[in-house]
Design brief:
The chain is of the alpha/beta class. The protein has a four-stranded parallel beta sheet, covered by helices on one side. Strands 5-6-7 form a three-stranded parallel beta sheet, with helices on both faces. The longest helix has 34 residues.
Length: 213
């Protein structure tokens, strides 16, 4: 498996990324996930190494995509040349324009995606509210629940309505599609593929030079 790229990403974003990998030309890419709570369970270098385990030797490169869930704590990750951590400013920027994300947040929107909604009951359990305290908490600082609708196959309406009722917020559906994610994913994959081609070409030139000298 040395000629493969492995991407680790938060399980909330897995459904959209997995859909693209399955429908596109990515036979050399594997996807793995990690469970990260945006506030209570930050990841650091130690957690990343524990997550990857002995898989570092199985792949040509491993890319771990994180955001605010990363806690900067260096514990030796730099000793692994084939592990790269990509830290985003905001995790949803993989899916949508970062200025637009901040605009919606500033307007008092709580942003979710189709993939996030698939496991909304787990997220609700992690919040730890009961229906009454949830409505009080979210009603103090938010105006609405906004679904960044990625077009992921499957039904989301029932989950969206249930979450809206639980939070005590009206909801809005804002279609964003999956083209932005496609570009984000391709940028990561193509950079890796191009680097492999460059190294292979340099090795071929060096080998030819040795044979002709």
């Amino acid at each position: 498996m040395k000629d493969k790229l492995c991407i680790y990403i938060c399980n909330s974003l897995v459904p959209e990324v997995e859909h693209l990998l399955h429908t596109g030309d990515y036979p050399d890419v594997d996807l793995k996930s990690f469970a990260a709570n945006c506030t209570a369970k930050p990841v650091d270098d130690k957690a990343i190494l524990e997550l990857i385990g002995n898989k570092a030797e199985e792949y040509d490169k491993i890319i771990v995509i994180v955001s605010t869930c990363l806690r900067n704590s260096k514990t030796g990750l730099k000793n692994f040349n084939n592990i790269e951590v990509v830290q985003l400013e905001q995790c949803f920027e993989l899916l949508f324009s970062l200025p637009s994300i901040y605009h919606f947040i500033k307007q008092g929107n709580y942003l979710v995606t189709n993939g996030w909604l698939r496991n909304y009951k787990q997220h609700v359990r992690e919040w730890g509210f009961n229906p009454k305290t949830a409505k009080n908490y979210f009603g103090e600082s938010l105006k609405r629940l906004m679904l960044l609708e990625t077009g992921l196959p499957g039904e989301y309406q029932a989950n969206l309505e249930a979450l809206s009722e639980y939070m005590g917020l009206p909801y809005e559906v804002f279609p964003i599609g999956i083209s932005h994610l496609q570009k984000s994913l391709d940028a990561i994959v193509y950079d890796w593929r191009n680097e492999k081609e460059r190294i292979s070409l340099n090795d071929s030139i060096a080998r030819f030079s040795r044979e002709t000298s």
